[in-house]
Each structure stands twice: as C-alpha cells, then as structure tokens.
Amino acid sequence: MFADAITPHIGRAKTDAPTGLRPILERTTAIAAETSTSGAMPDFSEPTAAAPISETEAWVHADCGFQDVDVRAVGTRFEGVPCTLRTGTTSSALTDEGGPGPLVVGILVRPKGPVAHRGPAARDGAEEMFAAVDAAPAAAVAAPGVTGGAIVELTPGRWFHVRPSGTEEGGVSADQEGMLAASAVT
User: Fold this and answer.
1) Which superfamily does 66-185 belong to?
2) Cα 60 versus chain centre, distance
C-alpha cells in the first residue's frame, strides 16, 4: 500500500530535514496516515493532497543547488527552455500559465536514434513516441496557475521537453501544437 511504502521514507527525511522543509513533510505524513486509515489513494487533484508535493518540489528547486530549468506552459507552447544545459542533476519546474487542458504534463526525453525532424514524433501516439525515446524517470505536472517539478539526471545529448499527449483524444498531438522544445546537454 502507498502509505506503508512512503511513511518510512518521510520519517527518515524529517529526521534531518532543514527547518523550511519540516512543515511540508508533516503535512505529507498526515496525508499518508489518512491514506493508511482509509485504504484509498489520495486525490491528488485536491489542493490539500497536491500542495505538499508542489511545495517540496519548489523547496528542492530553490534550495538544493541543482541546475534549475524554469519552463512555462503558455497556450500550446513551452517557453523558457534553454538551448543548452549541463550534464548532471537538474531541477525542472513547470508553471502552467494557461496551457491546454486541466493539467499540463512535461517530460524530458532523449531520442534513442537520429532525429530526422524537430523531435520525438508524438503525433504517431504515445506508444510509438515512447518506443523511440528514453524518458527521464520523472514528470512535471502542473494545474493552471501552479508550478510542478521533477528532478532528473541529464546525460550528454539532445533532450526534449515534451507534452506526451495532445489536447483532445484523437486530436492534434502535442508536438504538432508546439509543446516540444529542445536542449543540447553537454
């Protein structure tokens, strides 16, 4: 169960947590306890469940000294994606400033082979796109007006910020909408 798996990790983190992070971890502990009692996963669309996650991501972005990338979803475009990044641990913050749909999901992917056009071809569908790329094991998720984040380990090569789906089922894909931006990682 989720609560049983996460509670020991939160406890260890609270032991040595800096002052600014402790209150966030206390709220996360309360969510885990409620989950354990109810047996149901938290509803992460609810602000009380999502806030500790967003606050933790914001704290990491501001205080851990990683390379920071601040991306904005504006309409159907990613803005603020740097042309070049350094290899290593990177904190990617995604702010939804009026992106498409109820949530904007941004992932970092690296093509497995040569890229003939702008980037991974999401227009062929998520399954085909993910077969052609290596995805970082984290995604930034943001609701309108909210910033979400992800911590990723970047290796040399060409990486893309991409929204892995279009705005409508069966509609235009995210890369065709412009929800794709490249960075060279050296």
Assistant:
1) Cupredoxins -  blue copper proteins (2.60.40.420)
2) 13
